[in-house]
Design goal:
five-stranded antiparallel beta sheet, alpha+beta, binds biotin, 7 helices
Length: 287
């Protein structure tokens, strides 16, 4: 009886330290800027929406992290929904208020994607995540995480640029947790590892790796950033089919990513065109 009790108490104590909450994140996180302030919410419409409201209020500090256990109106790119079951995924937003030194805010999307990819690689080296331009993190070809950057001026008076960088990572869902329409193209970390994964560890690793790229961009040290992005890109060199907002479908070969983040595509007729963030709904392989 006594030993059993001890065991139970020990298990409880361990669980307490592994739980996803502000205190535990703070305890583990070794960053300079990102997550110095943490807001943990059991439920919210969208952490990005919440972040934008804070940004406009003007009282939020740079790098503030908003984490939610559940979102009722999670947003994806191009007005799509981001749906995730309660308690099984990572849903968070980083509020950035000091962006005067950044050449192109759109590069923050890539910094986010690189942070996720490196953060996952740090824990699961065998997963080898790649980045599908501009913001999808894939593992073995399946979308496992997404990044949504939304920019805004900080407030009516203060015209300085600000941004919220929202990240959703599929962590502990099983196949049946995904809506049927997308189930074939998506996956979670659990589906690759076969064991339940601690969200806390993944979050801390991703934030630490994101900060590395964030600081590099801020300081104009972009070399490592670009080489890593080109290396992890699943899109470059591939045949792509691009759905334009006008509803056209364009095919060609992705040849490079421009210095402002646009995708350079050699079209089938030989011309080269640049697609900017927002112009491309989907990039796929041509079988
Ligand atoms: C995409 O791939 O379309 C981007 C998905 C981004 C989802 C995250 S979850 C946390 C944050 N809050 C939101 O409402 N969206 C982002």
């Amino acid at each position: 009886g006594n030993i059993l009790n001890q065991r139970t108490r020990l298990m409880k104590a361990i669980k307490k330290y592994q739980e996803l909450n502000a205190e535990n994140i703070q305890r583990l996180l070794q960053t300079k800027v990102i997550g110095k302030e943490i807001i943990y919410l059991q439920e919210i419409d969208s952490t990005n929406h919440y972040g934008l409201k804070l940004l406009k209020s003007g009282i939020v500090s740079n790098g503030t992290l908003i984490v939610a256990n559940y979102q009722t109106k999670g947003r994806g790119r191009h007005g799509k929904k981001w749906v995730a079951p309660r308690g099984k995924t990572l849903l968070f937003t980083i509020v950035l208020t000091e962006l005067q030194r950044f050449r192109h805010l759109s590069l923050l999307t890539f910094a986010g994607a690189l942070g996720v990819a490196d953060g996952i690689t740090h824990i699961f080296p065998e997963f080898k995540p790649t980045i599908r331009w501009p913001n999808d993190i894939l593992i073995r070809g399946k979308k496992t995480a997404g990044v949504l950057l939304e920019t805004s001026t900080r407030s009516k008076k203060d015209k300085k640029p600000g941004a919220v960088l929202g990240i959703g990572i599929n962590v502990n869902q099983s196949q049946k947790d995904f809506p049927k329409e997308i189930a074939e193209n998506v996956a979670s970390l659990f589906m690759f590892s076969g064991r339940r994964i601690l969200r806390l560890n993944v979050l801390v690793s991703v934030l630490e790796h994101f900060e590395k790229y964030y600081l590099a961009l801020e300081q104009g040290q972009e070399k490592r950033f670009w080489s890593r992005l080109r290396k992890l890109s699943s899109t470059l060199g591939k045949g792509v089919r691009i759905h334009t907002p006008a509803g056209k479908i364009v095919t060609g070969t992705a040849i490079d990513i421009d210095e402002d983040g646009g995708l350079l595509v050699r079209l089938d007729d030989g011309r080269t065109t640049k697609f900017c963030d927002g112009d491309v709904e989907e990039v796929e392989w041509i079988e």
